[in-house]
Amino acid sequence: MDQSSPIAQSREFTPPLGKAWLTPLYDTAIRLLTSEKRWRSALVTFANLQPQDRLIDVGSGTGSLLLDLHKTCSDANLLGVEPDLQALRIARRKASNIGASIRWHNGFLDDLETMDDKPPNKIVSSLVFHQVPAEQKARIIEQMWHLLETGGTVLIADYMQQEKPLMRRLFRATVQRLDGLADTQPNADGTMEQLISARFEASEKLTEFHTATGTISLWRGIKKETHI
Q1: Which residues are CB-neighbours of 148 under 8 A, at least 6 positions away?
Q2: I want to staple 179 with a disulfide (CB 3.0 to 4.6 A). Which of 18, 55, 87, 125 is the partner?
């Protein structure tokens, strides 16, 4: 069953490509400009979805990642969390076209009801954190940790530290031009790596991909124990 929250209509968020009128072009732009097949395939592989898994995609956008995950294991419990109703409509249509049984929540992670009263054992997110303010990045990481069951895994693919000068220039000319400097610069400076490592045990960068829009890094963290 789909969930919807009135909070999604009252809180600000950045559309998938920075501007609402660009949302219909999102899938094409991501495919052409971000080496999508490489980083998304890597994320799906590391997710290693199993039938008993309960997975949440934070900022599921137009649903492409969840559809790829569904193709690898159609019996897993999948839930997409997305505040942008326009993007969510695209995701629902794509899922319906292939008969994918994916649940959707039009809202944010902090107004989400848990999955059948059971915490997720896997949480993923892709190309979301670079679009949210610095304090919200930390808040979402905290929410992920609290939602995740002990022993669970978080996988985040996003524009993180732009170490190479060329990648930094490309990131500035493309992503930062669309989404602005305020939210994206902390990512370019390495904030995300620090947030993930500070909250999740056994955190590590699994791989990175140099693209026409900057470097996209894939990080994994494990929730090993309960913190007070």
Answers
A1: 119, 120, 121, 122, 123, 154, 223
A2: 18
pLDDT of 209-218, one tens digit each? 999 999 999 9
DSSP state at residue 61: T
- The rounded distance, in Å, linking the Cα atoms of 99 and 105 is 18
Distance CA 61, CA 196 (A): 22
pTM, full prediction: 0.91
Place of tokens 């500035």: 172
Other Cβ atoms less than 10 A from the Cβ of 194: the count is 14
Rg, Å, the chain Cα set: 16
For the chain, which residues make up each domain, given as ranges? Answer: 3-222
CA-wise closest residue to 98 among 69, 59, 138, 131: 69
CATH top-level class of 3-222 = alpha beta
Residues 150 and 119: beta-carbon distance below 8 Å: no
> Which tens digits make up the pLDDT trace of 191-200?
999 999 999 9
The secondary element (H helix, E strand) that includes residue 56 is strand 54-58
